[in-house]
Amino acid sequence: MQILNMEGWNFKALLSAKGVPIMTAAAVLIGGISLAVSNSVAEGDKIVSGVEVDGKDISGMNEIQAKKFFEQTAAQKSIPLTFSYGGTEFQIQPEEIGLTPQIDKAVAEAESYGRGGSLLGNLGEQFLCLSRGRDVKLAAVYDEDLLNQKINEIATQVNVQPVNAYCNLHSNGMIEPIAGVIGKKLDTEKLAASLKEPLTNLTIPKQAIALELDDVEPFIKTEDIANIDTILGEYSTYYYPGDRGDNIWIAANAINDKILKTGWEFSFNTTVGPRTWDAGYKPAGVIINGKPDIDYGGGVCQVSSTLYNAILLAGLTPTERTPHFFQSSYIGYGRDATVADGQIDFKFRNDLPHTVYIKTYASGSTLTVSILGTRADLNGATIALESEGASLYRTYYKDGQVIKDEYLHTDQYYTASSAENA
């Protein structure tokens, strides 16, 4: 039996045409519907008229034919994801992310139109399919974790780590600024989200997807060190090589090439981190609860004390500082700053108009800490540290005259002939 093609009919005009009684028009309409769907009703295993997939008519197909059609469609659409960046292409194969077309679900949907309801309901649904059409989408599922894993593998190949700007301090005192490098980073979460629609709807583009990477600024930018032109303050102490000297070298390198912008506070313990075996520290002389002892990180206090004197000479502001229990041999009276993991910290703040930069040098038996900054920040003044008994003062000079005399602290030390340097 042939299906009557009703797609070109104008039912509204038919019902309203002059000279055509309403009852007659209704009879014609019902008759037309019956003719149009009678074949589908008679052959209930076939997909009804008007059902399409991507504009292709699949009406009249039985289940086996429809399944074969969707399998062929899935094979055509299940193509690799291809990405391009910097002249290199990267691919993710469908099987690598468990991409699975939902063929049985699509077949069931195609067969469901005009089926399973009452006779009148089925007739109405089939008429709607014929007059308006029904588009069946072949969907797919995939493993999001596998997709994220493959995207992260691509990210490791295209990401570029930023490089901090830094200052070289030459032996003649010349400061050489080295520009930073902006890094690149693939937003993996954003990329994964953008792939959800083409993967689930099997609309994977045939052309390569151009990857767009975000800029990643370095922590120390080129402009951060642009105004650094002088050594604001510098201080040296001396030590003997060995385990204690090795600890000094590790801690000194931990604070090297660090910046402190205006208003920032520096924490020695936070910057250096725990003094543990895992961090490379060795057992050496320390003072614990007022008694000489041996512990990992012995000697690190010489780094914090040397730094303390350098920042005082640079005009920075100490905010937390504690003297040793005993007087240390490597530094003058009242000029030390002890530290202990999780207990005692040394902190200071940059109240100058521009950023300052810390440089350290530990080699042989010499430890030097230099604070680099902007010459104009001290307004032509020079700084000296002066002691009066147990008290320490910071004095600012300009044109040979004292312009500021700042009291810092008065320390008291205990004496013990067996005390070792901490």
Structure description:
The chain is of the alpha+beta class and 422 residues long. It has helices at residues 11-16, 22-42, 63-77, 103-112, 119-132, 144-158, 188-200, 243-255, 268-272, 300-313; strands at residues 51-53, 56-57, 81-85, 88-92, 100-101, 134-135, 140-141, 166-169, 175-178, 183-186, 209-210, 213-216, 230-238, 258-260, 265-267, 283-288, 291-296, 317-320, 347-349, 356-363, 366-373, 382-388, 391-398, 401-410. A hairpin with a 2-residue loop joins strand 20 and strand 21 (366-373). Helix 3 (63-77) packs across helix 4 (103-112) and helix 6 packs across helix 7. It is elongated and about 110 Å long.
Q: Which range best describes the helical content: under 10%, 10-25%, 25-40%, 40-55%, 55-70% or over 70%? A: 25-40%
Can you tell me the overall shape? elongated
Number of domains: 2
Radius of gyration: 40 Å
β-strand percent reads 25-35%
Unreliable residue runs:
1-42
Give the biggest sheet: 4 strands, antiparallel
* Mean pLDDT metric: 87
Tally of DSSP β-strands: 24
Give the structural class: alpha+beta
- List the total number of helices: 10
Q: State the end-to-end distance.
A: 104 Å
Biggest sheet strand line-up: 13-21-20-14
